Amino acid sequence: MKDKSSRRTFLAAGLTLPAAALASTTRTGFQGGGPKLVSGPAVELKYRVLGKTGLKVTSVGFGCMITSDQSVIEKAADIGITYFDTARGYQQGNNEKMVGAALRNKRKNLVLSSKTGALTKEEALNHLNTSLKELGTDYLDIWYLHGKGKADQLTDPLLEAQQVAKKEGKIRFAGVSMHGGHADVIPAAIIKKLDVVLCSYNFTMDPANAALLESAAKAGLGVVAMKVMAGGFRRLKQGEKYYDILKREGAMLAALKWVLKDQNIHTTIPSMTDMDQLDENLKAMSLPFGDADQKLLAAQLDYIRPLYCRMCGKCGGACPNGLPVSDMVRFLSYADGYGEYPLGRERFLSLPKEVRDIRCNLCPTCSVHCPNGVHVAERLSRAQEVFA
């Protein structure tokens, strides 16, 4: 079986591969048995097939959203990571430009995806043209409709934009990304015959999500997992707020290994901001998930329970003042978990002014009760204090 990188020639592959076959799909053609880690021994790269797209991708990809060091992206591609994900809106449009500069000379060997948050067909196609220009490429392997939480957000005009882009050779495959709303959006993506779904998926979430992703994989959709670290928390340094609560040695590696043990997940896009994180994520491909990892994640879940939104959607519409509870908690996690205050504030400021002006400390009691234990009033008050 040969890989093809042309936009019009797709790798022929079956819908699924047996677990044993996937496990043996490794890269060993380097001196010393595999490509070298930045600061360690050789690493074994493992590949999976992205549904009926036929795209062969490393099981650990690269989520570029919060990366500001171009050299980390370059090193990941040199080592052998093949899947890189960005979006038109990341870093106010500058992320695509950086990713393009980092990958331009390696483009033909990579799978590159971007996203649009547009609401109209015309705006989406304009976004795509800008994305292609900034990335320095004439096509995307996957183009996602960004951040859809309800089936009715997959509108006919947006789906038509994806089909137009396919016919023009500007994208190879069409997808949808979602932070929550899996039970609504994934069945719609199957019905509407999208090619790829990009979903939040981690050890904290409702087990029902695993069945939904299995249904997508069985239907032939490529399945990409994001938010695999359950809020990040790996960038915190000793002395910073929440360090003692959230910084647990090995927890992030265990979290990534937990996702990779699910063979219905074809690739993952953990954020990577430095060479140490790149090294750690690469190890997840060759280290099995074991009992020690399970115990570590159980302890981690107890620690992050008051802070981390699992995006179950049960708080939707619960605030009498109309606050988008899960979104605001997620925005705060960008600052507290990923160390990305500008990103969190940018998302907070995108809310309508009347929502931004609400202050939770003026309510005598909070009527929103998280079934998973998030301290909603505390988190929303902190988001208002930090970002407003």
How would you sum up this structure, described in words?
The structure is a single chain. By secondary structure, this protein is of the alpha/beta class. 38% of the residues lie in helices and 12% in strands. It is built from 15 helices and 11 strands. Strands 4-5-6-7-8-9-10-11 form an 8-stranded parallel β-sheet. Helix 2 packs across helix 3. The chain is globular, with a radius of gyration of 20 Å. The relative contact order is 0.11.
Fraction in beta strands: 5-15%
Please trace the helix and strand order, writing H or E for each element: HEEEEHEHEHEHEHEHEHHEHHHHHH
Largest sheet: 8 strands, parallel
Q: How far from one another are the termini?
A: 54 Å
* Overall mean pLDDT: 85
Overall radius of gyration: 20 Å
**Low-confidence spans:** 1-32, 234-238, 240-247
Number of helices: 15
What best-fitting shape do the alpha-carbon axes yield? Answer: globular
Instruction: Please give the order of strands in the largest beta sheet.
Output: 4-5-6-7-8-9-10-11
Assembly state: single chain
In total, the number of strands is 11
**Helix coverage percent:** 25-40%
Structural class category: alpha/beta
Give a quick set of tags describing it.
388 residues; alpha/beta; eight-stranded parallel β-sheet; three-stranded antiparallel β-sheet; 12% strand
